[in-house]
Prior knowledge:
The complex is a heterodimer of chains A (about 110) and B (about 120).
Chain A: E1 4-7, E2 10-13, E3 19-25, E4 33-38, E5 45-49, E6 53-54, E7 62-67, E8 70-75, E9 85-90, E10 97-98, E11 102-106
Parallel strand pairs in A: 2-11
Antiparallel strand pairs in A: 1-3, 3-8, 4-5, 4-9, 5-6, 7-8, 9-10, 9-11
Chain B: E1 2-5, E2 8-10, E3 16-22, E4 32-37, E5 43-49, E6 56-58, E7 66-71, E8 76-81, E9 90-97, E10 108-111, E11 115-119
Amino acid sequence: DIQLTQSPSFLSASVGDRVTITCRASQDINNYLAWYQQRPGKAPEVLIYVASTLQSGVPSRFRGSGAATEFTLTISGLQPEDFATYFCQQLKSLPITFGQGTRLEMK
Amino acid sequence: QLVESGGGLTQPGRSLRLSCAASGFKFDNYAMHWVRQVPGQGLEWVTGITWNSGLTDYAASVKGRFTIARDNAQNSLYLQMNSLRSEDTAVYFCVKDIFPTLGQGWYFDLWGRGILVTVS
């Protein structure tokens, strides 16, 4: 199985900050990586797919990059609604796996 | 939308069957999945099924105990959960893929609200 390791697990930041979350895969997954945002009590919503494609309707302050085994999600100019939990997901091969999540909290 | 039902409280060793009613899209064009989440913790993909039920796959943690199925005529997805364990306690999400097949996918584009299964 492909393991995804996200870091950090917890992030404290302020409105207007830029933050970066990293997701490392245990083997090459090409660019079959998606990023999701999950707010408390809600289902996850996709932000980025195939590593760097912004989902329609998602603000441009979200940016995904990377390939193979190392990926990043960068949020520039944090807004109050961005404080949530973020997950990466690999869809290269079965079983599909998720990173353990990064909880972004307001400082 | 996707609407899950059939969750609740059950005892270890018992069975439970989750259902998911789909609407608003052509159900038989897409693969479907179940993803679970222990409250306050991460996401775990449980199982997936192709558009025509030709292929299914399972997480190791549920293989041999859980069975995914779909009825395209009824726009419904199911999860039969047998030999339940306390570690199966979680919110279970019914999830739509953007492709009809499994593997080399891009993302999941529609999630249900989730339904709580408690094994205790």
